[in-house]
Specification:
about 50 residues, 1 helix, rod-shaped, mainly alpha
């Protein structure tokens, strides 16, 4: 049986993972915008 502390720790880990994923996504899209600006080509990125 899982304890409350186990559940809270799992939720903290999940939250930290989501924050890291969102930060990586932001860096990716910023780099993509720079690539589009440097190349003069729009719409290089994935269609969301």
């Amino acid at each position: 049986m899982r304890t409350l502390l186990d559940t809270l720790d799992a939720l903290r880990t999940l939250d930290a993972t989501r924050v890291a994923a969102n930060a990586a996504r932001a860096v990716f899209f910023a780099a993509l915008a720079g690539l589009e600006q440097a190349s003069g080509v729009e719409g290089i990125g994935p269609k969301l």
